[in-house]
Structures are given as structure tokens and as C-alpha cells.
Design goal:
The protein has 183 residues and is of the alpha+beta class. It is 44% helix and 16% strand.
């Protein structure tokens, strides 16, 4: 039975990882000077290399607090609180029958005989198992600015070869002054 649980957990983590946008090992981008206009959504004029250290630090702290809140939501399996942390775009995507069918057709999901029917299924059968709060260490969180209101949150894990590897935890956007998970 233990082997099946490990296989299922690995399957779910793999599916969530495939459903997130992943990148090679990016480097932090804060610069020592410059200022970000948080109300500027024009990504053409935004330069992540000009984010001031103060803006980077305060944004990183906000993101860490948001992830700490997400960890508590996962621990308590609070679906309603979780949906409050999602962008409408994320809700629409992971509620769509085509995306749920696509995820359900993944070989590891099929092997575990898991069929996702709705967003709640995705939360309980994919998101929760892949976001074990004991593995998401708040002190190990780093961010990378994408735009003035969007960041990628990373953690660093040690792989089987003993090398540190950065992994994307969340793509986030500040919407109406609140951080939300985006695609």
C-alpha cells in the first residue's frame, strides 16, 4: 500500500508541475536602483532589472505571507478559501471540462484511476497533494518580477544528485491589491 501512495503522490506532483509554467534555473532580478509604478500594467516599458531593492524586499515579504496563507489553506483543505486566492483566469481554466479531461488523461492519473470532474476535484486530488506545506519552506521563497504586478515565486530544493534546483511554486499577480494565483 505504501508504494501505491508514493506513486500516487509522485503522479499528482508531476501533473501539477506540468500544469504550471516551468522554467530553467532563473536568477533573481532585483537591482539596486529604480522604482516600479505598481499601477503601470504596460509590460512593454517595464524593466525587471530596474526594480529597487526596497520594492523587491517588500514584494517578497508580501508573497511569503501569501504563500504562508496558502500553506494553511492546504493544511485545512479549505476549498472556499483556496478559490479566493485564484485569479478568474485560473478558475476558468481549471474548471473547464477540456482542461480537466486533459489532466485526467495524463498517464499517471489514468494509472491511479483519477478522473477530474470539477475545480474541487482538482483542488483535492492535484493541488493539495502537490503542495505539501511541510515542503514549501517560507524562508526559502524567492521571487522574480515579470511585470510591475506579476511575479514568479520560487523555492529551492535539493535534487537526488545533491544539487540545489529552483522550482516555480506559483505565478502570481496583484489584482485589486491582493495577490492571486494565475496561469
Amino acid at each position: 500500500m505504501g508504494g501505491k501512495k508514493i506513486l500516487l503522490m509522485f503522479s499528482l506532483i508531476t501533473i501539477l508541475a506540468l500544469s504550471c509554467k516551468t522554467m530553467p534555473d532563473p536568477k533573481p532580478v532585483p537591482a539596486e536602483t529604480g522604482q516600479v509604478n505598481r499601477n503601470n500594467s504596460n509590460t512593454h516599458s517595464f524593466d525587471p532589472n530596474k526594480v529597487s531593492q526596497a520594492v523587491y524586499d517588500s514584494t517578497r515579504e508580501e508573497v511569503k505571507q501569501f504563500i504562508e496563507k496558502l500553506n494553511q489553506i492546504v493544511r485545512t483543505r479549505n476549498y472556499n478559501a483556496w478559490t479566493g486566492t485564484l485569479s478568474q483566469e485560473y478558475i476558468d481554466l481549471y474548471s473547464s471540462s477540456s482542461k480537466l479531461r486533459e489532466l485526467s488523461e495524463e498517464p499517471l492519473m489514468k494509472k491511479a484511476n483519477i478522473t477530474l470532474r470539477n475545480l474541487n476535484d482538482y483542488f483535492t486530488r492535484v493541488f493539495i497533494p502537490s503542495r505539501n506545506p511541510d515542503r514549501v519552506q517560507i524562508d526559502n521563497i524567492d521571487i522574480e518580477f515579470v511585470t510591475s504586478t506579476k511575479v514568479r515565486a520560487f523555492t529551492t530544493r535539493t535534487n537526488n544528485a545533491g544539487q540545489n534546483q529552483r522550482e516555480i511554486l506559483y505565478n502570481l499577480e496583484k489584482i485589486n491589491n491582493d495577490w492571486k494565483i494565475i496561469n
